[in-house]
Amino acid sequence: MRNILIIARRELAAYFSTPLAYVFLVAFLVSAGAIPFFMGRFLERGQADLQPFFAFHPWLFLVLIPAVGMRLWAEERRTGTIELLMTLPVTTWEAVLGKFLAAWIFTGLALALTFPMWLTVNYLGDPDNGVILASYLGSFLMAGAFLALASCISAVTKSQVIAFVLAVGAGMILMVSGLDFVLGLFRGWAPQIVIDLVASFSFITHFGTIAAGVLELRAIVFFLSLILLFLAINGQVVELKKAG
């Protein structure tokens, strides 16, 4: 655990040593704040809640989270510092978890900085703060799943641009898998069990359940399972690259 925390601190410091952290934070906060007002009709709805705010989080994360995760391993491989990292007295799994934890903490910080939105709705009315808290938890878990996916893909290539594009593409598949137009492609020829399986991988569906204030165990387990799955694959890829 000590090695994981050391790596996490190293990676977190690396974020703020470059403009990437500040660009991401500004882009996320501006987008997360502006979209609910201009596209979600935040004021026109006449309701003191953050439903328009959280409704766009999946789409924001689809683009912004790969920008955070693309450098985790691709940059190490491009500069050759991955060999140095692997010679340190840390295991591959400690390195994977440390890097992921740093990026997840950074993403959590970006989410936490949106607290003025929460204060605003409490000033304007009497929102259900339990639902808002559940939505923040769901958003954090979904960000972790996107991030684990991006980290896994980053370990495959030396190019951050390729890692970003592939992570966005893979994330898009997981995003829309539960939408009607996607499921319609399977109806008529695939058995219902296949359709249900495809639908079960939808980020939007599971996040929507939590954002509605329902802390459904299935949705929480879904995101945590994906995080563990992608990190396990991430570790295997790094091991293979190291052996090669």
Task: Give a written overview of the molecule.
The chain is mainly α. The protein has one domain (2-243). Helices cover 78% and strands 0% of the residues. The protein is built from 14 helices and no strands. It has helices at residues 2-16, 19-38, 51-55, 57-69, 71-79, 81-87, 92-112, 115-124, 129-154, 160-176, 180-183, 192-199, 203-211, 217-243. Helix 9 (129-154) runs antiparallel to helix 13 (203-211). The model has no long low-confidence stretch (mean pLDDT 85).
What is the secondary structure topology, with strand pairs?
Elements: H1 2-16, H2 19-38, H3 51-55, H4 57-69, H5 71-79, H6 81-87, H7 92-112, H8 115-124, H9 129-154, H10 160-176, H11 180-183, H12 192-199, H13 203-211, H14 217-243
Helical percentage: over 70%
Pattern of helices and strands: HHHHHHHHHHHHHH
Q: What is the CA–CA distance across the termini?
A: 27 Å
- Count of structural domains: 1
Number of strands: 0
Note the main sheet: none
Question: Could you say which structural class the secondary elements and strand pairing correspond to?
Answer: mainly alpha
Total of DSSP H or I helical runs spanning 4+ residues: 14
Radius of gyration: 19 Å
**What is the overall shape?**
globular
Detail the poorly predicted runs. none
Amount of beta strand: under 5%
Q: Overall mean pLDDT score?
A: 85
Brief synopsis:
The protein has 244 residues and is mainly alpha-helical. It has helices spanning 2-16, 19-38, 51-55, 57-69, 71-79, 81-87, 92-112, 115-124, 129-154, 160-176, 180-183, 192-199, 203-211, 217-243.
